[in-house]
């Protein structure tokens, strides 16, 4: 017998399960071609091949401190009361490429990052000397190896430093540069046309009449596309007219990998997206989820099309659930999904039967908990800005008591 608070309910028969629609969307997009780009143009892109280090890091033994290169034996008895005085034979700034050897009984003045001279086995920081230029008085003994950064202790020449499928952020680009890669093979970022329709929509910044609203899905989805490492082109205020819709769309079809629309897909009298694509290779379905029930996906004149619902929260949540993973995979990402965690609810929660609910939440990683942010309504846009995750409530779970473990997708 299932417990009272976990009534078993399947996805309603007329609705397509979330997993099925995810698979349909994923199947639309293929990996973008590989191209070579200079490092400065690779931020956020995905590496297409393993990167092996051409050189070791550090490439040579070098000083970790500004000071003096010495033989540890020579300064073994040094103290503030009885300093060891050595003649300074050479000055070795960072970037000096010859290697003047150190003779026993002498010191080389050396700077951080400069190559350790052959014959030296320790660095004395300038603070433990008198800072002399001709002769230096050393006030402290040093162990052999002190303040020397050894060649290859970070990376060995030939080692694989980055794997194919890695998203290139600041650290990855820094490492690639450090091992001498000037260009990297990356997947071209998928190009997405974001198209929003609706006669009620007004450009933000312009005056608003009663009955009108500011267009927000276009800018939001284009930003989500860019955040997913893709390039977005934004086409807004396309009128609710099928001919005008096609006229606006057609010039872009040859240059994009995906057309992503918002709005115009439910059951109203003016559903321009549905009217324009119905019978043209795009299938319109109701998915067993909330928000985000009305969805469309298919291929129109050779170009993948995904139609998202117009309610703003529905639009962004559907983007997260269906579009983002497909785009990340197309961009070559080896881990295209958002990280998922299990977390305990800080309060009781009700969920509609037969539909998977995606509620906005705040995940506290330290406490292992998640709190509900805002209501379930798909027009409640403000909660998206204060949440950091989507709570995934199974279609079978209708009443969840405080402390129940749920899956959360970390969106920030
Ligand atoms: N009779 C039915 N009505 C509705 C159903 C249904 O099954 N039967 N589904 C509801 C659900 S669920 C959703 S979600 C919406 C989806 O509607 P559409 O995708 O057709 O979107 P619109 O009607 O064009 O707009 C819905 C809502 O969102 C606002 N909107 C639209 N585009 C934008 C934009 N670019 N920026 C800001 N806001 C936008 C629009 O003004 C509407 O308020 O349908 C339900 N109805
Ligand atoms: O499914 Mo709609 O997306 O709830 O508002």
Automatic annotation (TrEMBL):
Top-level taxon: Bacteria
Domain MoaB/Mog: 193-329
Entry GO MF terms: metal ion binding; molybdopterin molybdotransferase activity
Enzyme Commission identifier(s): 2.10.1.1
Keyword Transferase in record: yes
Catalytic reaction equation(s): adenylyl-molybdopterin + molybdate = Mo-molybdopterin + AMP + H(+)
Pfam families (alphabetical): MoCF_biosynth, MoeA_C, MoeA_N
Enzyme kind, highest EC tier: transferase
Function, as annotated: Catalyzes the insertion of molybdate into adenylated molybdopterin with the concomitant release of AMP.
Protein name, UniProt field: Molybdopterin molybdenumtransferase
UniProt organism field: Allokutzneria albata
């Amino acid at each position: 017998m299932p417990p009272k608070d976990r009534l078993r309910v399947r996805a309603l028969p007329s609705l397509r399960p979330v997993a099925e629609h995810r698979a349909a969307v994923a199947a639309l997009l293929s990996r973008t071609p590989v191209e070579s780009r200079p490092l400065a143009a690779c931020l956020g892109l995905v590496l297409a091949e393993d990167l092996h280090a051409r050189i070791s890091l550090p490439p040579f033994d070098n000083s970790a401190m500004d000071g003096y290169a010495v033989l540890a034996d020579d300064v073994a008895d040094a103290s503030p009361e009885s300093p060891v005085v050595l003649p300074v034979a050479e000055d070795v700034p960072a970037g000096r490429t010859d290697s003047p050897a150190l003779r026993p009984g002498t010191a080389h003045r050396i700077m951080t990052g400069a190559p350790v001279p052959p014959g030296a086995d320790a660095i004395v920081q300038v603070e433990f000397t008198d800072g002399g230029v001709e002769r230096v008085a050393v006030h402290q003994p040093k162990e052999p190896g002190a303040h020397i950064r050894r060649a290859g202790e970070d990376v060995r020449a030939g080692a694989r430093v980055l794997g194919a499928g890695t998203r290139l952020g600041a650290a990855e680009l820094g490492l690639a540069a450090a091992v001498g890669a000037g260009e990297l093979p990356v997947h071209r970022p998928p190009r997405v046309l974001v198209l929003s329709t609706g006669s009620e929509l007004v450009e933000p910044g312009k005056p608003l009449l009663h009955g009108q609203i500011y267009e927000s899905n276009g800018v939001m989805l284009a930003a989500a596309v860019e955040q997913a490492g893709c390039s977005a082109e934004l086409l807004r205020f396309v009128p609710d007219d099928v001919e005008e819709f096609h006229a606006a769309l057609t010039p872009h079809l040859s240059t994009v990998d995906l057309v992503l629309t918002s709005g115009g897909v439910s059951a109203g009298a003016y559903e321009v997206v549905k009217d324009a694509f119905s019978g043209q290779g795009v299938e319109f379905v109701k998915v067993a989820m909330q928000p985000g029930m009305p969805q469309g996906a298919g291929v129109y004149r050779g170009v993948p099309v995904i139609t998202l619902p117009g309610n703003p929260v529905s639009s962004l949540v559907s983007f997260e659930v269906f579009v983002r993973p497909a785009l990340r995979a197309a961009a070559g990402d080896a881990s295209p999904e958002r990280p998922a965690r299990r977390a305990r609810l800080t309060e009781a929660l009700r969920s509609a039967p037969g539909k998977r609910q995606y509620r906005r939440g705040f995940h506290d990683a330290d406490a292992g908990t998640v709190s509900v942010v805002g209501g379930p309504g798909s027009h409640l846009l403000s909660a998206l800005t204060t949440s950091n995750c989507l709570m995934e409530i199974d279609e079978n779970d209708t009443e969840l008591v405080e402390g129940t473990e749920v899956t959360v997708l970390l969106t920030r």
